[in-house]
Predict the structure.
Amino acid sequence: MSNSLHMQLLDATKTAIEGLGLTGISSSNVVVLQVPDDKGKWLPGLPGIMVAPFGRETLPADQGTNRSDDIGYPVLIAIVDVANQAQTTNLDGRLYWREQIIDEFFHNRLSIAGEDPIEQTIEPLEIVNSAAWFQRQLYVSALVVRCTIRKLRRP
């Protein structure tokens, strides 16, 4: 088991996505990376999904309790597929992958050992990243799941 809460959330996200059984995306093509790669070179094959830490944690000073702090851990989920600038190929299927992922995380919190999120929100990013589309011939669609955990302060 991972020591860091963030890594546990990344692993739980990967497991939840694998459990969706997304048509055309094998479990081996869902990977956890340190840095999201908009070229898809770290995926064993395409289509695939990258899960990675992204941006910054949130540390709101006005939340938590006298003995704990609320920390928001960002988890990026990025769908990557070969596009070749084909405007209509598999558009419905790709949008359905995104929809299923949103449905999975929107009102269902991840579960990790002892520190389940008290809140989980989705921060949608571009439905189709135009730079990846035009410059690298890839379909890239992403969102961030932010898991807020109430963490006991160290004594």
